[in-house]
Amino acid sequence: MKTKTFDCVEMKNEIQAQRWREYQAHKDEYPSYAAFIEARAQKSEWVSKVRAQANRT
From the centroid of its chain, how far is CA 30? Predict the structure, then answer.
């Protein structure tokens, strides 16, 4: 069995912690954490592509 070079759960937790720190630094600009995440998604090229593909079906 191949040894993992990273832990997926730890990576997810670190990304979520980073997003939370970003939100805390800018929370006066957003009415909620959900609004902050949606604003980030609106700026994401990857999210735009996924949404475009989902709208085709």
Answer: 16
Residue with tokens 């989902």: 54
Alpha-carbon distance of 40 to 30, in angstroms, equals 11
Q: What is the DSSP letter of 51?
A: H
Q: Measure the N-to-C terminal CA separation of the chain; round to a whole number of Å.
A: 39
Closest to 24 measured CA to CA, from 15, 33, 35: 33
Burial environment of residue 40 by CB neighbours within 10 A (0 to 12, 13 to 18, 19 or more):
middle
Phi, psi of 36 (to 5 degrees): -60, -45
Tens digit of pLDDT for each residue in 3-14?
Answer: 777 789 999 999
